[in-house]
Amino acid sequence: MGHKHSKAEILAGALATAFDDGLSQVTFGRIAKRLGISDRIVVYYFPTKDDLIGEVLYAIGAELQATLAPTFSKPVANHHELLRTTWPILARPEADPVFALFFEAGGLAAAGREPFRTLVPQLVDAWIEWTAELMRGTPAHQRAEAEAGIAVLDGLLLLRQLSGSEVADRAARRIWAG
Amino acid sequence: MGHKHSKAEILAGALATAFDDGLSQVTFGRIAKRLGISDRIVVYYFPTKDDLIGEVLYAIGAELQATLAPTFSKPVANHHELLRTTWPILARPEADPVFALFFEAGGLAAAGREPFRTLVPQLVDAWIEWTAELMRGTPAHQRAEAEAGIAVLDGLLLLRQLSGSEVADRAARRIWAG
DNA sequence: CAACATTTGTAGTGATCACTGCGAAACCAT
DNA sequence: ATGGTTTCGCAGTGATCACTACAAATGTTG
């Protein structure tokens, strides 16, 4: 198979564009310009924009999971324990860009924009399921505690994005205390 | 002063466009088409897009505050009490559209897009300050409890937007219980 | 009414968007 | 080499974007 350009290379360019300029700036033209190729090739491998965004979202999900993987290793009893053990890892500057993308995707999903509207909830659900597996107890307990943990984590991480790390850390300490 | 069209009328059209199609669809042309006027008039009253979006965000902030006002009436001791009293009011279908817009703005802010990047944190801070006034205790306690309450509320409301009301309510119940 | 400022219509700017038609390479198996 | 498929350059489509020049209409004020 002849290939000067590969699909993986273009997807990497798309991800780089997303991290640099945001998801809403991931366009055929911008990716092509960044890679110094014709936008025709980008369209060739990703026939529609939804295909492109879909694969970018999937890759971001994988990136997010890779970010979380080292943290989510040993089982916990409830969402409080989850939060206390994961927050120090998640609230690091290196993790901020991927969460920024996640919240942008979440916002576009909340606004009803396709394909975010359909894909982001799936991503969140996968995250919940994955978290639930680390919980001890009955399946219902696992699921509910995972949902609670994700909710509080999302709120804290969003506050971190919008108001900075000091505010978010202070809020986290209050939540642990309560 | 002669005026067939008023600035308030155009701003109302902009808000309607935002609620219907999302913040990212608030453009000069779409507002003009919705109102059946020339986009020239829209540009006349809002010389740049940042002016337009800025005023739309301000109006959404006012709308959000109006949504919260009846709830945030009597003082509370800490963020737990705040959550328990406000959640039943906030987790109503009528409140969802304005929160959808808030999360879209938050996502664009997280992505670094102006003017969201500068305006949304101000909006969040105003919301925190406003919530802090309802807290009992020292100023530091007020502020920290308000931040914690906002964080958890945001997380739950975002989960509600992305995963639906059942999931969010279940998570809320777990957080109260904990 | 005359002088003036505010408001609005018509038209157009150059940019970017997602996406396409078409033909020429480049690659492959036979 | 020959034929067929995959890849890709070039050019262009119509749409939308923020924004502007210019002049006519519409006010307001003296």
List the topology elements:
The structure is a homodimer of 178-residue chains.
Chain A: H1 7-21, H2 28-35, H3 39-45, H4 49-68, H5 79-90, H6 96-110, H7 116-132, H8 139-163, H9 165-177
Helix pairs in contact in A: 1-2, 1-4, 2-3, 4-6, 4-7, 5-8, 6-7, 7-8, 8-9
Chain A binds a DNA duplex (30 and 30 nucleotides) through helix 2 and helix 3.
Please tally the β strands of chain A and state the result.
0
Low-confidence segments of chain A, ≥5 residues, pLDDT <50? none
Report the helical percentage of chain A: over 70%
Average pLDDT of chain A works out at: 94
Oligomer: homodimer
First CA to last CA of chain A: what distance?
A: 61 Å
Structural class of chain A: mainly alpha
Sheet with the most strands of chain A?
none
Number of helices of chain A: 9
Global Rg of chain A: 18 Å
Describe this structure in words.
Two copies of one chain form a homodimer. The first copy, chain A, is mainly α and 178 residues long. Chain A has nine helices and no strands. The mean pLDDT of chain A is 94. Chains A and B meet through helix 6, helix 7, helix 8 and helix 9 of A and helix 6, helix 7, helix 8 and helix 9 of B. Chain A binds a DNA duplex (30 and 30 nucleotides) through residues 1-5, 27-30, 37-41, 43-44, 47-49.
